[in-house]
Automatic annotation (TrEMBL):
Domain Helicase ATP-binding: 32-206
Name of the protein: DEAD-box ATP-dependent RNA helicase RhpA
Pfam family, any one: Helicase_C
Domain DEAD-box RNA helicase Q per the UniProt entry, residue ranges: 1-29
Motif (Q motif): 1-29
Alphabetical list of PROSITE patterns matching this protein: DEAD_ATP_HELICASE, HELICASE_ATP_BIND_1, HELICASE_CTER, Q_MOTIF
Catalytic activity: ATP + H2O = ADP + phosphate + H(+)
InterPro entries named among the record's database cross-references: DEAD/DEAH_box_helicase_dom, DEAD/DEAH_RhlB, DEAD_box_RNA_helicase, Helicase_ATP-bd, Helicase_C-like, RNA-helicase_DEAD-box_CS, RNA_helicase_DEAD_Q_motif
Keywords: ATP-binding, Cytoplasm, Helicase, Hydrolase, Nucleotide-binding
Low complexity compositional bias, start-end: 388-398, 405-418
Record lineage: Bacteria, Pseudomonadati, Bacteroidota, Flavobacteriia, Flavobacteriales
Length: 434
């Protein structure tokens, strides 16, 4: 399968080859042809699958077939839940449209609107936007959506999680009813399906292949540890493992700030990225992290959602998420586009039940390691094994003990294989049952 065989035009193929992509990812191979045919598409895909190119490439081809030279009304609207994702999608649009006569802009809140307004006034074909700023600028008469032909709703599940349903409904009333729609979501709840039915017209359903999902390619590990030892443990892991680029997740903004300070005190360059940080600070932190001047980026779930940091080698859950799906999103920051990566979770006694739920969701138990000097609090209650828990999970309770962190590097492959084997076993079991 090649990009050419998907029917993409020469200027796009040139841009793709400049990016270094050789073959389309599964979601691209499945989504690009129906989009080019003008069909509505509902795609189940999360970040890391190549979904952005999956909608951007055919969208650019459609728009470039009928290029407006003088007056440029906005013909494509791409809606994203977060500012960071909007900026990344826009960066992709710019790269893929390098050899086309297409103009684009991005708008999001938290920054001065003046430069955004100036770009829009010059005339653009594609607008990438977060809902709040879009409604704001539409109200001000800066943005007109009356000529939109293509509408993309990216990360629809996160849109709903962030409470954007009303805004989306408002925006839908501002764009023509005759249009092509593309909707991407990592999960499909009842609410997402309802939203899909209200937006899409007879959509083609597209799914990224399960082999491509993060949990398969990522080496996952749990460190059981006392709560008050977590900071020392993460500093030890980063320092002794010589980890150069680490994304750390905390549950709260306050926790992110606190951990960042402690890292800096330990001579590890770090920055926090969360909703209370200004857009400028967030962009600067992300740029520093990508460049390598910042070694550790400490983030909350919402801030990290959709961040495109290629080949991120380490993700650490400083606190394990209480929403199991967030675990999959978090570890999806590593092992991107087929590259392997390591995801480590620091789990204290009070988080065990969250871990169990995650294991249930991903269908595998995660290897556990205890490092000497960082043992779980002996006084913390061990969770009783509940009826119905599977054998793997019970085995997991028998935690392998390792004497130092140096061993953990050696255990990488065996750990990955055991994850894979378990997963395979699970698949075999489920197929034999069906
Ligand atoms: P996305 O899921 O759109 O955030 O993309 C995840 C990462 O995969 C980004 O760094 C893309 O640049 C990269 N990517 C997208 N498509 C391909 C491809 N066909 N081959 C290799 N890398 C890709």
């Amino acid at each position: 399968m090649s990009f050419k065989s998907l029917g993409l035009s020469e200027p796009l193929l040139k841009a793709i080859s400049k990016k270094g992509y050789e073959t389309p990812s599964p979601i691209q191979a499945k989504a690009i042809p129906p989009v080019l045919e003008g069909k509505d598409v509902l795609a189940s895909a999360q970040t890391g699958t190549g979904k952005t190119a999956g909608f951007t490439l055919p969208l650019l081809q459609i728009l470039s077939q009928n290029s407006y030279q003088k007056h440029r009304p906005i013909r494509a609207l791409i809606l994203t839940p977060t500012r960071e994702l909007a900026a990344q999608v826009y960066a992709n649009v710019k790269e893929y449209s390098e050899f086309l006569n297409i103009r684009s802009a991005v708008i999001f809140g938290g920054v001065n609107q003046k430069p955004q307004v100036a770009t829009i006034r010059q005339g653009i074909d594609i607008l990438v936007a977060t809902p709040g700023r879009l409604i704001d600028l539409e109200n001000q008469g800066v943005v007109s959506l009356k000529r939109v032909e293509l509408f993309v709703l990216d990360e629809a599940d996160r849109m709903l999680d962030m409470g954007f349903l009303r805004d989306i409904e408002r925006i839908m009333k501002l764009i023509p009813s005759k249009r092509q729609n593309l909707m991407f979501s990592a999960t499909f709840s009842k609410d997402i399906k309802k939203l899909a039915y209200s937006i899409l017209n007879n959509p083609i359903l597209v799914e990224a292949t399960p082999e491509n999902t993060a949990v398969e390619v990522i080496d996952q590990k749990v460190h059981r540890v006392a709560k008050n030892k977590k900071t020392d443990l993460i500093i030890k892991l980063i320092s002794e493992g010589n980890w150069e680029q680490v994304l750390v997740f905390t549950r709260t903004k306050h926790g992110a700030n606190r951990l960042t300070k402690k890292m800096i005190n330990a001579d590890i360059t770090a920055a926090a990225i969360h909703g209370n940080k200004s857009q400028g600070a967030r962009t600067k932190a992300l740029a520093g992290f990508k460049k390598g001047t910042i070694r550790v980026l400490v983030a909350t779930d919402i801030a990290a959602r959709g961040l495109d940091i290629p080949l991120l080698p380490h993700v650490v859950n400083f606190e394990i998420p209480n929403i199991s799906e967030d675990y999959v999103h978090r570890i999806g920051r590593t092992g991107r586009a087929g590259a392997s990566g390591q995801a480590i979770s620091l789990v204290s006694a009070d988080e065990i039940s969250y871990l169990r739920n995650i294991e249930k969701l991903i269908g595998m138990s995660i290897d556990v390691e205890i490092i000497e000097g960082f043992e779980p609090d002996p006084n913390a209650s061990t969770e009783p094994i509940k009826p119905g828990q599977n054998r793997n999970r019970n085995q997991n309770q028998g935690q392998r003990r390792k004497s130092n962190t140096k061993n953990s590097g050696n255990s990488k492959n065996s750990s990955r294989n055991s994850n894979r084997n378990r997963n395979r076993r699970r698949n075999n079991n489920s197929s034999s049952q069906s």
